[in-house]
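FYI - complex with zinc ion, inputs then prediction.
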Amino acid sequence: MLVSFSFDIKHADSNSLARVGTINTPHGPIQTPAFIPVGTKATVKSVLPEAMADLGAQALLSNAYHLYLQPGADILDEAGGLGEFMNWPGPTFTDSGGFQVLSLGVGFKKVLAMDAQTFRRDDVIAGNKDRLAHVDDEGVTFKSHLDGTMHRFTPEVSMQVQHQIGADIMFAFDECTTLHNTRPYQELAMDRTYAWAIRCLDEHKRLTEERTTKPYQALFGVIQGAQYEDLRKKAATDLGSLESSGQSFDGFGIGGALDKGQLGNIVSWVNQILPEDKPRHLLGIGAPEDLFVGVENGCDTFDCVLASRIARTSAVYTMEGRFNLSNSRFKRDFTPIDDECDCYTCTHYTRAYMHHVFRGKEIISATLATIHNERFIVRLVDQMRQALLDGNFADMKADFLGRYAHRSGQDRD
Ligand SMILES: [Zn+2]
């Protein structure tokens, strides 16, 4: 098996942990830092793959849990893999499903990052809700959110599912906790994630050798540990040096419960320990201000559903901050969403038109707003990459946040 995966660092910033590099995959390179748009169910909702390529997306990330339930990982395998199936010729990622099976289990579908002070007890997560998932040392048993059928994910099953889906970059199956969990529970979950990481490496090795005709798929370990410095550092130390069946992780994902105010600390604790020559992906982070924190603290790639999800509700990112196009003040505004944006939407349509299609609930509203938001975030990270190469990242950051944060405060609906 030819291991056609590598990471080359082209430039390391002297004032921070940031670096510029290239991740090489069997489906092409990714220039980093890079934002990876999310197509959860093998589609970026409402947008054609060609439009994603045109707006500068270098890779797409889909979700193993959703694709396992529908249409089934075997269908994607038969189709020739995720990229072939969804008509995306470039690199692809899948996340392991750990986040989804567990976040459905505790009843939070979307938000894991929240104020650590709000809840303390483990039993809060069960609440009055019927739990959809139960975790034990072997794996997670969960109920499908689609039809209520029972399923079980173990590290081995997650690897089998992700190999069938066939993305270039996969993530190890981890136990994803929330800030609701107590410190003793976080420790337990971290030990479990470590044991599961070994099982993922073993199964990944076995499947790689079994499926010799398939392109090499890289496996990233996932660093947990919530907001605790010692736990995060331990996870980075243990997983960073882990080798099993002669196989180590090709890169790392930083995941789990975190307080947004602690993001920079958490990422820097971890990235100062992880092997420098392997790529680091910050899972589920994609708000403009957080991307700067991630980049300057040594993360190479990012994914987040926010850009497309908020677009469908008429919320757009601009240099003037984030606002909602359905607001009546845009009814006669014949300027682009963002006059500094070079996307298809901004070069062909006005705020007044966008306001009209959102008010009329026209399908094209989602398409046009998603193209703009994805372009805005992809381009912002591209600009960070260029600023690192030019040696003016700090100025670029201050300039962007000065305008963005200032105007956001004024313009938020
Ligand atoms: Zn635009």
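Confidence is low (pLDDT under 50) at residues 107-128, 409-413. The radius of gyration is 21 Å.
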